[in-house]
Amino acid sequence: MLPTPLANLPRPMRILCLTLLLFFAMPSVLFAADLQISDARIRLLPGDIPAAGYVTLTNAGENDTTLIGAESAAFDNVSIHQSVTQDGVATMQHVDQLTVAAGEKVKLAPGGYHLMLMKRKHPIDVGDEIEITLLLRNGQQLNAKFHAGAPTTQ
Ligand SMILES: [Cu+2]
Q1: 18 alpha carbon – ligand 1 mean position (Å)
Q2: All domains in the chain, ordered by first residue
Q3: How many CA atoms within 13 Å lie on the side-chain side of 141?
Q4: How far apart are alpha carbons 4 and 10 in whole angstroms?
Q5: Ligand 1 mean position to 52 CA, how many Å?
Q6: The pTM is what?
Q7: What sign for the dihedral angle of Cα 33, 34, 40, 44?
Q8: pLDDT tens digits for 63-83?
């Protein structure tokens, strides 16, 4: 049954009150993306050389959040990579997942983690804004515009 004060309200008000009650009773994770995206940029390289996506991920939530992949209508294939130097040789490794701990910040940046953007589906020019969707383990999908920059982009 409804609490008495609610039951006495006109019906539209009652619905509004119940909606608000439900809204505030639900865990905030259903509403707000815990991961904030900033400084999203792409380093374009000539021809069909894969481009690199860089971004700062800030976890303002109370739970660890894990990036498990990304996709974009502008590229056939997007994966998470990490640049590593082994025995003096710089290589890249595929990364299955990247966790951003609660309250922490992870930077995808030159020399470290990056999104490897392979096989452009259409020409991309410096200055273009390319939409990339970040896929999180909790099912959230975050869309962000990445600013396409020159090969010198850091
Ligand atoms: Cu790479």
Answers
A1: 50
A2: 1-31 (no CATH), 32-149 (2.60.40.1890)
A3: 7
A4: 12
A5: 7
A6: 0.78
A7: negative
A8: 999 999 999 999 999 999 999
